Amino acid sequence: MAIRLNSNEDIEMIRLSADLLSRAHAEVTKAIKVGVTGLELDKIAEEFILDNGGKPSFKGFHGFPATLCLSLNSEVVHGIPKKAPLKDGDVVSVDCGVILNGWYSDMAYTYGLGNVKPEVQDLIRVTKESLALGIAQAAAGKRTGDIGFAVQELCEVKNPYKCVRELVGHGVGKGIHEDPQVPNYGRRGDGTRLPENCVICIEPMVNLGKKGVYTAKDDWTIVTQDHKPSAHFEHTLAVKVGGPDILSTFKYIEEAMYANPELVKI
Ligand code: MG
Ligand code: MG
User: Fold this and answer.
1) Which of 34, 48, 110, 185 has the most neighbouring CB atoms within 10 Å?
2) Could you say which ligand is closest to the alpha carbon of residue 200?
3) Cα(90) to centroid of ligand 1, in Å?
């Protein structure tokens, strides 16, 4: 499949979708606390998206049952929100997607809830920083390997962590997952060339321990093989000449995070 190219007007439509998604995330940020359940967080996100004219893009996708992917601790991604309450010390990864006026966006953030071990706080911080470094490579004419290299170099060379290989970033816009694939590892100059006005999601999934993962018995949740924690951050962005135009934003999340006394300030 070819990479879908967007007009500047298309990109503004994806920006609107991503803005709603960013604000939906912040509603979840406000509600994360010890004792809240995954199902309660899911309901908050779904109602906010529907109330603002959007649709959750994950719900019903290949039968996925929820608005959020909520992945705790050793769960990497694709966790299903449950009725179990969140606990002090949990690593809470929230991934969500929105469709607004037919345009898709996708974004994820990882929180430390309460007393999270310093080494795990560092994993979360480094994963977030690796997203920023990957995004900085997203200029027209660069290649997916330039992004993967930047992410991997920070996580695996400058830090003792491991990037997950089995799951990758992707194009987005008219569908939930479009071409190209955007791995979180690679070599400079390798991979797919990024044309101007393609829109992609970059989403490092980074493990504290070994890189291996497996799919749990629910057929959805991806879990680390060594059961050590994992973190995940994601933005939707447009590739432009000279650099990226980031369409989703962590601004609302970060405002809510700083106002939420139970969250580690990442
Ligand atoms: Mg996502
Ligand atoms: Mg994604």
Assistant:
1) 110
2) 2
3) 20
Cα 201 to ligand 2 centre (Å) = 6
- Among 155, 165, 150, residue whose Cα is nearest residue 225: 165
233, 255, 262, 260: which is closest to 123 by C-alpha?
233
Residue 25 lies in a domain: yes
CATH of the domain at 101: 3.90.230.10
Residue 266 lies in a domain: no
CA of 94 to the centre of ligand 1 (A): 8
Question: Which ligand is closest to the CA of 96, given by its number?
Answer: 1
Average pLDDT, stretch 29-52?
A: 98
Residue type, 169: G
Ligand 2 centroid – CA 69 distance (Å): 11
What separation in Å is there between the alpha carbon of 260 and the centre of ligand 2? 26
Cα of 205 vs centre of ligand 1, distance in Å, is 10
Residue 104 lies in a domain: yes
Prediction pTM value: 0.98
**How many folded domains does the chain comprise?**
1
Q: Identify whether 227 is part of a domain.
A: yes
The three state secondary structure string of 8-42 is HHHHHHHHHHHHHHHHHHHHHHHHCCCCCEHHHHH
Tell me the three state secondary structure of residue 172. Answer: coil
* Ligand 2 mean position, distance from CA 53 (Å): 21
pLDDT one-digit tens code per residue, 119-147: 999 999 999 999 999 999 999 999 999 99
Residue 69 in tokens: 């992917």
Nearest 10 degrees: Cα torsion 98, 24, 70, 138: 60
